[in-house]
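Suppose a classmate hands you a notebook page containing two proteins, each written out with its sequence and a corresponding row of structure tokens. How would you begin to make sense of it? This section walks through that situation. The first entry is reproduced here exactly as it would appear on such a page.
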Amino acid sequence: MGLKHAFWVAFAASAVQAQTQSLWGQCGGVGYTGATQCANGSACTSLNAYYAQCVPASSTTTTRTTTPATTPSTTPSTTPSTTPSTTPATTIRTTTPLTTQITTTSSIRTTTSSSFITTTSSRTTTSSSRSTIATTLPTGTITDCLTSNDVPQYLPGSSNFNFEAKGFNLRIPFTPVAVAMPTTVPQVQAAVNCGARYRLKISAKAGGHSYANHGIGGEDGHLMINLKYINSVVLDTTTNVATVGPGARLGNVALGLYNQGKRAISHGTCPGVGVGGHVLHGGYGYSSHTRGLALDWLIEAQVVLADGSLVTTSSTQNPDLFWAIKGAGGSFGIVVSMKFNTFPAPESNIVYSYSFSWTQAQGRASLEALQAYANSTQFPRELNLRFWVGVFNTQILGVYYGSRADFDTAIAPLLSKLGTPSSSSISVMNWLDTLNNYAYATMSPPLDYDVHETFFAKSLMTTQLSPTALDAFVSYWFTASKPSRSWYMMIDIHGGPTSAISNITGEAGGSYAHRAAVFKYQFYDSVFGGGTYPSNGFDFLNGWVNSVTSVSPANTWSMYINYADTSLSVNDYGNFYWRANYPRLRSIKTTYDPNDVFHNPQVVQPV
């Protein structure tokens, strides 16, 4: 067996060497095991020690290895800021002196980093016109380009690089070519120009909470642009319009808006999620049935396009792009600033939960009753409800925005169909306490947020479960073999006749394709303590979703990209995430990013 195994290893290695890489493809670098020969007369040229690329022979440069950035001597700070401030605070992460001090101002927190690679020049440039990508590779490396354009960066091999390039989902690690750390919009523009000139795919990381690690690229070899320092939260107390940087996290946004004027937007529960990706792909939370999605409060955005230009988008300026980013934002550019309408933070809210122990028949009857209730006008807009199934319990829980008496009246028709709960909890809370109740973490996450899990997740959106689909779903719930891991399934009452989400139609709804969906599901299966996810672990959640999709017409279900599913094929994800909107999205992608500069494995594809 040993000789036979050695033969196949040698055969495979020789086969790889015999393959050739196409122009602009990767051909080398630390850890790379693919083809090293370049096709069509192109030459393999190192951009840094971790990435080499096939480039035209006329544009090749001397192969070189770039020295990694200085390793920090201290671990990243995890101390949260609790009070908004307009005065920059300074957090030193290394003892290496700065060549140029770089400071970013935020109403929540600011940081001066001392381990960036940077230069002494203070030049900034703003592109005012669309341009084409160079057809030949310039001299030097991506590192040289970023440095000459005053873009701070981390290189592979440094502790700072490893920290910033670590994805939320540890099951699928990826390695970028470099991590750009801009503190200004012109630096974002310069980084995009550099990446495009070197034919690198570009990914923007706002909070880094993508289930598929799309902010890192969702694959190796991207230029990652980290937006963590572009994180300001500023409320205009005259207009009540908030201007927010994409690197701000939901907890900081909530605190910033409340502390500056007791205002709010509708958004999700996890305070560590970055506002950028959350908003631009939906943004659901415990106020969405009442107030709509986070993206429904977006009124304007500043976007850096693939040619480095900066454009304003709104319902009246570049409206096609505005429509596209409201549901598929990561595919078209890097949003560097967002403006939101806000609403007064509600100060008296009912936070509730009911626990149940059901038989399979009771579970079937309860889910049917929940669907009927959500589809009726009896379900008040003020009621936000989640149905939760976990390893240890089954619950309905959520928030009602109104009085206790009105809540009791609203919930009574549903409770009468669910049976007697084994326990319940009902409390009156103010806005911040309501958010904190479901945060399960600090509402003021640190700049160097460092939370990771090892997991697989799926989603589903359904308009109406047929009796057959209900039977299949509940049967799987009660009879399928459950893993000895930390798993859960939850269903949010997303749409219906009284939902604010479903009542937004036409262009105002953006490219978000699920307005008609009544139920929004998340399926999540993680490994305790961050161990290795098993190779056969995917069957559990795939089977649960398939129990519904296999017996349901295609026009009755879809999937939610904020719960990105890495198991979807390249032929399916676009249709599942964006349904009827996908052809229009592809056309807009072709207009604004025909070369697919902003790429990940589940991006809107150009025509």
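The notebook's second entry, a different protein, reads as follows.
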Amino acid sequence: MTSPYFTHSSVWTRSGIRRTRLSAFGSKLKHKHTNEDTRPPVTLKVETEETIICEYGSPTPHPHATAQPNTQPNPSGPSRRRHLKIEYDERAEEPGVKTERWEPPDWKRQLAHIREMRRSRDAPVDHMGAKTCYDVGASGPVRRFQVLVSLMLSSQTKDEVTAAAMQRLRARGCTVEHILKTDEETLGKLIYPVGFWRTKAKYLKKTSLMLKQEFSGDIPDSVEGLLRLAGVGPKMAHLAMDIAWDQVSGIGVDTHVHRIANRLGLLKKPTKSPEKTRKALEDWLPR
């Protein structure tokens, strides 16, 4: 017997014959094995293990696995999704290549009607606007300063009220030096009753000080420079460039132009502010 569960012992008889016998432990195992063979057969359940390979994330090891999982990325497998940044190359239009711009279908006829309506030039702005509120005989810097002051006072104010305030300022001396010498309370009384007269009096003092310190008493000759001044917005800046410097830098759009442009359909899509209306008009209006 070669099984380790059986032990052998040799016995010599008197006649000199060697006999081999099993130990008690081996006998018991043999008896037990014989008894187990008499039991009915047992049905074996075959189990299969399915291995799932995850495409993304770290692999989850099997609870009975002894080998360490391979955490190195598989070069042949699918890669992780990446966020790509797309940049468009904005190049200038090539010469000779025409691109069609959007324009209102009936804007020329509407413009002709507006010109016909305005042919008499009898609106208050034609006689009391910023083009008429400066001293013709004054020097260039003074004239330009008075144009700027009249534009600053005209916000939320009727043309008649603005013109009257400018007359009072000019009678006292509407220059950078005179505005700086006038106290804020007196200045407010001179421009009253323009809209927001207290705030505008402060703006006039601040603007005059900046003009003296940075522009030698003259007004800036660019939209960017004008927008740095207290109380000056895009509409005033473009009108000042036109009237004071005789340069067309853009369209001066107030609440009235904003409302009419939307009602006439002069915009590609409706706008909600005068500044957006200005940009939308400048996108298609001929220069």
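A careful reader of the second entry would note: The longest strand covers residues 8-12.
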